[in-house]
Structures
1.
Amino acid sequence: MDAPTGSTRVDPLFFRRTMGRFPTGVTVVTTRDATGRPWGMTANSFTSVSLAPPLISLCIDRKAGSFSAFSQCSTFGVSVLGENQQDLAVRFATPLDDKFGGVAKVEERPGAILLSGAAAAFVCTVHTRVDLGDHVMLIGAVEECSLGRSAPLGYCDGSFFSLSGGETPLEDDRPGRQILVGWLVEHEAKILLSRDTATGEWRLPVGPLQGGSTMSDALRSTSHVLMGQVIEPEFLYSAIDISESETCHVYRARPGVLPRQTADLRLFAEEDMPWRELSHSSMESILRRYFEERVSDRFGIYLNLGAAGRIAQIEHEVPWADHAGNYERSAS
Ligand SMILES: Cc1cc2nc3c(=O)[nH]c(=O)nc-3n(C[C@H](O)[C@H](O)[C@H](O)COP(=O)(O)O)c2cc1C
C-alpha cells in the first residue's frame, strides 16, 4: 500500500472500518458527575502513554451521553474486560439510563468504579484533556492498577474475540525444541490412551502441532490427525519434556462424541490404567494427578521442563479462570 497522502479524501466510515482491522482489548471507563450519578462507556481507544510517570489515554466522543461527565471529572476508572464480559461491553456501549444496575463493581475512590471480574483495572486522576477533532483525549495519571485472572476480551473488525483458546499457551525459550500436542481426553472418569504399535507402550494421544490459521485451528487439526475427529480443547493441563528435543503441551478435553475406539486407542478407568506400560514417567505423573484432581474439578498446570525434571504445580486454578473481583494488586 502507498504511503497515505492527505487526510481529506478519507471517508470517515471507511477510516473507521480500516481502523477496526487493528485488534484491541475492550475497556469500560467510568466516573461520577457532580450529582454523584455514575457514568460508564465501552472504549477501545485506551492506550498507554508514559511509563514514568504512568499515564494512559482514552478518547471520548463529544456525542457520547457521558461526554459531559468525562469532560468535568477529576477521577475515573478503567476496567479491561475479561473474555466472559462481552455482555458488559455491549451494555456499556448502549445508551441506557441505568448501565450499572445489577453490575458487580467496586469503587476504590469516588468516581473510579471498577467492574468485578475484569482482566485488569486502573484508577486514574485526570492529567490533561486535549481537544482533538470530534473527540477529547483524556490523559489519566495512573494512581493504582491491578491484574485480574481472566483472559482479556479482544475486539477486531467489529467483533469480539477470545484470546484464551487462540494463543500459544506456554512459551519455550529453548531453541530447537519441537512442540508436540498431547490430549487428555476424559469421558465418564475414563481417559483415552493410544498405544505405540512398535513398542506396545501406552500414552496420551500425542503428535506434532498441525498447521492452521489460529492456534485453535491447529489444535483441532492435530486432534483430527491423532484421534480421527475434531476435538475442542478446554484448557492447557501440562507441559512436559518427553525427549531431549521434544516438549509436549497437554490439553484437557471432554468431547460430547468420543473418537472411535480401537485396539490401540482405548478409554481406561483409573483402576484399569496400564501403569507399567506407560511410555514415559511424566505420563504417569500427569495421569495420577489428573485422577486426583478431577474429584474436586480444580486443576493446576504442571510443568516438567528442563534438566531438573521437576513437576511443579504453579497455579491451583483453571488457567484463565474468571474470578469475580480477585485482583493481583500493583499500586504505582
Ligand atoms: C468495542 C467498542 C469500543 C468503543 N470505543 C469507544 C471509544 O474509545 N470512545 C468513544 O467515545 N466511544 C467508543 N465506543 C462507543 C461507545 O461505547 C458508545 O457510543 C456508548 O453508547 C457511549 O455511551 P454513552 O452514550 O452512554 O456515553 C465504543 C464502542 C464499542 C462497542
2.
Amino acid sequence: MDTDLQLDALRRMVRIRRFEEAAMSIVRKGQGIAGSVHICIGQEGAIVGSCLALRREDYMVGYHRSHGHPIAKGADMGPLMAELMGRATGVCRGKGGSMHLADFSVGSLGETAIVGAGIPQAVGAAYSARVRGTDQVALAFFGDGAANIGSFHEGLNLAAAWNLGVVFVCENNLYAMSTALADTMAADSIAARAAAYRMPGIEVDGQDVGAVHEAVSAAVERGRAGGGPTLVEARTYRYRDHAEYGTLDLGHRAVEELEQWRTRDPIDLLRARLLDSGVDVALLDQLDADVAAEVAAAVTFAKRSPMPAPEELYEDLWATPIEPSPRRDAVPVAGAAR
Ligand SMILES: Cc1ncc(C[n+]2csc(CCOP(=O)(O)OP(=O)(O)O)c2C)c(N)n1
Ligand SMILES: [Mg+2]
C-alpha cells in the first residue's frame, strides 16, 4: 500500500474502533441499543485490508460481528448507528439492528446471526454476477467457528466447482464464543482446507493491514479474471467479550493472552509505520480528531432520528419477486472447471 492508501486504511480502522466504542458506551448506559452488540475491536486490520481490495460495486457479506465491515467498505456511519438504535433512518429502517446491517449502496449485502449462513450467500452473489455478465466479485467474511459449519464446505465446494469469483475471508480470532479453536479443530490451519476444494488457501497476519490487503487483492484479481475462488485465513484477535453487555469478563481467556495481542494492535502498527516513513504526527492527530467528530455526528444523528411508525411494521420484510433468469447457459456444465 502506498502512503495515501495507508492513510485511508488508518482512517477506516479508526472509524471502526471509535464507532464501536460509542456503541459500547450506548449499551452500557442503556441509551437505546436493545440487547447486546458483538464488537470486532482488535480485528480491524483483517476487515479493512480486505475491503480496501474491493471496488464499491463488489459484494460483501458479513456475519454477527460486522459493524466494521460496512464501515470498511465506505458506508456512512450515521445510518449504521441509527440501525443499531432501531431508528427509522437506519440502513434497514430499524428492522435489522446490530446483527443484520445491510447497506446495498456500498455492496454490503448483509449480515446474519446464523453462523456460517453468509458463506453460501456470497457464492450466490458471485453467481448472480456471472448471470448478469459483470465482473463483480463477492467476498464472504466469517469466523473460525463458522469454518466448522457445513455451509462453509458447501459454499467452498460450489464456488470451486462453478469457478466463481468469491473470496472467502476467515477472521480467525481463535475462539467461537468461549470455545477455543484448539479444542475443536483437528488441524491447526483453516487455510489448508482450501486444498480439498482445489483453490488456493493463504494464511496471513490479520494485524498487518498491508499484508491482508496484498493477499486479498491477489485473490480479488484472480476471481475477477475468471480464475475462481480463494480462501484467506487472517489470524487475529478480539479484545472484547463474545458479546457486549457493558462489562468485560474475559472468562475463558488469560489476561496475558489479551495483553500479548494488544502489543500487535493493527491501528498502532500502521500508525508507527506511517510515522517511521516520515508522515507528520500532526496529520495523524488531525485524522483522529476528524474521525471522533464523524462518530459524534453519527451518534447525534441516530439519537435524534425517529423510531419507525408501528404501521410500518410489515413493510420491507419481503423481497419483490423477480422473473427467473432466461440465461440457462450461465449454469456451468458439471466438471467444466477441471
Ligand atoms: C448455526 C449457529 N450455531 C450456533 C450459533 C451460536 N453462536 C453465535 S456466535 C457463535 C460463535 C461463532 O464463532 P466464530 O465463527 O469464530 O465468530 P466470532 O464470534 O469469533 O467472531 C456461536 C456458536 C449460531 N448463532 N448459529
Ligand atoms: Mg472466532
